[in-house]
Amino acid sequence: MADIVTPSVVILIFVNRTWAIYLRSRKTLAFIGILGLIVMAFEIEESTAQWLHVCSMISVHPQSLLSESYIFFTPKVLPVARSLSLAFDSAVFWLTFYKTFHIARSLRRQGIPNSLTHKILYDGFMYYLSRIALVANIIGLPELRTNHGFKPILSVTLA
């Protein structure tokens, strides 16, 4: 259940924050909201597929619990789901960056280096970089595959 609730709450917070930064713009809400709903649907589907896999491992017949139409996630679909998740995070990050960068820069020029806007930009940038690394690791980009074990270390670090 936490596999569904936590990402959903994060998505709702990001949608709400971006909507507030854009002064309750309905276009922004529609764009970010629809993208967030798509990502939530993939999260629910992935969680369901994992649940069905666990049921099959303990000899519970998942077909009797859910229809076979829920068996959606395959190794080919998971990178698409993660890419959509990164697209959502990218949209939120760049929309937030666009609106807050000039404000943070003008506050810094006025002698206020550690404003809330600066913290939002910094934390958002660090979150975005970690998401890029995590998604690139899950998708399995060839650049991350080395003989020295960089990919497993990245998994442990960001998990």
Main sheet specs? none
Secondary structure: number of strands: 0
User: How many domains comprise the coordinates?
Assistant: 1
Radius of gyration from the CA trace? Answer: 19 Å
Portion in beta strands: under 5%
Please tell me what the overall shape is: elongated
Order of helices and strands: HHHHHH
What is the mean predicted local confidence, pLDDT? Answer: 76
Unreliable sequence segments:
67-71, 147-159
Computed structural class: mainly alpha
| C-alpha termini separation | 18 Å
User: Count of DSSP helices?
Assistant: 6
- The percent of residues in helical segments reads over 70%
What does this structure look like?
There is one protein chain. By secondary structure, this protein is mostly helical. The protein has one domain. The chain is 76% helix and 0% strand. It is elongated, with a radius of gyration of 19 Å. The protein starts with a helix and ends with a helix. The C terminus is likely disordered.
